[in-house]
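Hi all, long-time lurker, first post. I run a small reading group and we've been trying to get comfortable going from sequence to structure in the token notation. Rather than ask abstract questions, I figured I'd post a concrete chain and ask someone more experienced to write out its structure so we can walk through it together at our next meeting. Sequence below, copied exactly:
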Amino acid sequence: TYKIGNNITNNFSIRFIDSCRFMAISLSKLATNLITPGLEKFRETNKVFISEDFSLVTRKGVYPLQVHGQLGKIRRTLPRKDDFYSTLKEKHIKDLDYEHATSVWSHFGCKTLGEYSDLYLKIDVLLLADVFENFRDICIATYGLDPAFYFTAPGFSFDCLLKHTKINLELLTDYDITTSVDKLYSALRARCIHVVFRVLRLQPVYITIRLL
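-- Answer (accepted) --
Happy to help. Here is the structure in token form:
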């Protein structure tokens, strides 16, 4: 039994959706697309942070992922710029990004890397919520369908196609056509597997983490 507002209900479900299945772009770029003069699209962020914080929390933060496992939450100063080096991207962060990290650490009074980590994750989650809610608003207004009820963009797009063309799909009854479709499906699946294994050879560590 769950209580939502003043209502108590047994009809409650949780669905985990990968936003990358709909928007295969970095959160940094997606958050930048939400910026307007009034910042009204950051609805979830606005519920947690005050207006004085907005210049720091309406963009993707930066985090020293490489040193977190070594220094953990006991580090009491912001790591050096060199510690923000990304082994995945094989490059250092820009000076402006490090200045942003310094401003966030100072503005929110972080005393340890653990506090900075918690803040970084909070901002990340809120930005992703704002991005996806804005995406939902656009899809509902444009197509009259809510992407939150789908698992991938192709599935959502297919229903948009059916709704707006008003086409009634017929079942495949011709043996030759059915066989051709099966062969095409098998070929596409084999191609996808080939691409995955090719990427695995190039980036084994990263892919292993993503698959877990």
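A couple of things your group might point at:
The first strand starts at residue 2 and ends at 4.
Residues 204-212 have pLDDT under 50 and may be disordered.
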